[in-house]
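Student: Please help interpret what follows.
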Amino acid sequence: MASLCLAPLPPPSPSHSRKLSEPSYSASLNSYSHITGGDLKPIVVNGNPPTFVSAPGRRIVAVGDLHGDLDQARCALEMAGVLSSDGQDLWMGGETVLIQLGDILDRGEDEIAILSLLRSLDLQAKAKGGAVFQVNGNHETMNVEGDFRYVEYGAFDECIDFLEYLDDCRNDWNEAFVGWIGVSERWKEERKMSQNYWGPLNLVKKQKGVIARSMLLRPGGPLACELAQHAVALKVNDWVFCHGGLLPHHVAYGIERMNREVSHWMRGLSESDNSPPIPFIATRGYDSVVWNRLYSRDVLDLEDYQIKQIHSILKETLQALGAKAMVVGHTPQTLGVNCKYNCSIWRIDVGMSSGVLNSRPEVLEIRDDKARVIRSRMDTYGEFQVFDYT
């Protein structure tokens, strides 16, 4: 492995050479991107970051919080039928649309590897007429703010290793980022077996890890710019996906506007001198999009009038968006993926990461507005419940 160079990193540039071709979204908020495939109509993406997606006839699968656990992430993706089971990390989903609901960062050691895997799958999916979308969660925004409280020692080490690999790739960001999933585990093993591996209590090693992570994730840093390509709220057909939950005042503010502001902040940009340094309505506070837990609370802890109030708020939000249902992560559901409020809200964070609950992975599948839970490898497509919204 090359020696770590902690020189300042430039953000990813569109002018960088790319060894894998990928669609690029126009800077215009109202621009469209088309993803063509087989017999189905093209997927049409509106917004930068993607905000409104028309995916006619597509099977949709949604995966909740992954928190740096690559093994569990692969298991969930295999269960969803979009990842090969031979260890080659190949897209098997055809024209499927995969949506990951954020919180890939923190609590685990393989965060960049998971991000790399999803980017690689997105490139492969687009060639088949499918797509992979991600939304940012509170742990993504926390890290861009420089809040590393929940970072594992191994994740700091991964940042050091990735910067060395980027140097090996001659600072070709796209080559390094897409290729990292193919080499990350080998580098991890080499690091742990190295005689120079100092262990988690070495303060110098940790300091290097903090510096490396800060370089990657600061606003304008290359990994922050990768996250900036993802929305905090995404509408696909008649379904809305976000990490914590949308409220009426978020919709009134404008989800396109929120997505753009968070993206600009992560990229180190500012629309005007008067704009806030951090988009608070989306990323700060108990009622922000990435922190909101209103819809994920256990109804057994609520009074009847509170349940009615929450249902009313949810209904108002969905009506304003022209949506039929919302899918959220953020709050681990100890009983598994479930729906509430006449199944207008689906809660899909099951705490699958070993850094959270280490629970059995589960994913949500949506076909023709019918939703069901895919629960186990033994019974890959065992139905939990089916609800027809048409």
About this structure: The longest helix spans residues 173-193. The chain is about 35% helix and 15% strand. The mean pLDDT is 88.
